[in-house]
Q: What sequence folds into this?
């Protein structure tokens, strides 16, 4: 069957992954922190566990990746970017890793630290 | 705090969105159907609603996009691709749309048809 593409398009609740990737992340005051590098998806549940925020560095040197729980990202339609309320001090202290090293996603201890840092409920249940 | 990158890496349950994008989709017999174009994510829940399968066409003409529920994709580590058991007849009948037209993700009636087609439980609950 063909999909009816003439039906009136209504606002929808879905966003494309390749559209999220590369979207800017700002503070509530509008200041840019970085961009979303990718999303990390739990294979079994199909849940987005984290957005990976890419920030810092200069000409590719010293760039950091910061995992941010999906629930902590608010989309600002005016600025067309995600909003996270996080200070420079928190960014410095937050769990992060150099862009050329893999975060050990299998280490549940590290994941608990990330969630504790954001006071977010773990995506894998209590 | 810095993340301990020396800890032993264990198998993990997360996959990166930019790694899923572009991954081949095959039938159980190994035959390639197409590739994953993108994932459609429910903004509120952070759940992957569909993977969008790109297939068919020639030199970019006549390409089709087929939404496939995440739960229907099985990853084959041997072939490093996703596996969906779907025949050419089913592909022809399945809800799809030309690659240059937007599927109306806001049309819940269409989404119900997609889920009925795959006999999958709707991601938005019963």
A:
């Amino acid at each position: 069957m063909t999909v009816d593409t003439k039906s009136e398009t209504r606002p929808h609740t879905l966003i494309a992954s390749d559209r999220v990737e590369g979207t800017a992340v700002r503070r509530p005051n509008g200041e840019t922190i970085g961009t979303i590098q990718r999303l990390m998806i739990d294979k079994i549940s199909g849940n987005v566990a984290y957005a990976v925020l890419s920030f810092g560095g200069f000409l590719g040197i010293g760039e950091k990746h910061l995992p941010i729980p999906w629930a902590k990202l608010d989309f600002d339609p005016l600025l067309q970017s995600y909003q996270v309320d996080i200070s420079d001090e928190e960014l410095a202290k937050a769990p992060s890793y150099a862009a050329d090293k893999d975060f050990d996603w299998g280490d549940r201890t590290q994941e608990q630290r990330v969630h504790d840092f954001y006071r977010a409920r773990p995506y894998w249940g209590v």
In short: Residues 4-10 of chain B have pLDDT under 50 and may be disordered. The longest helix of chain B spans residues 108-118.
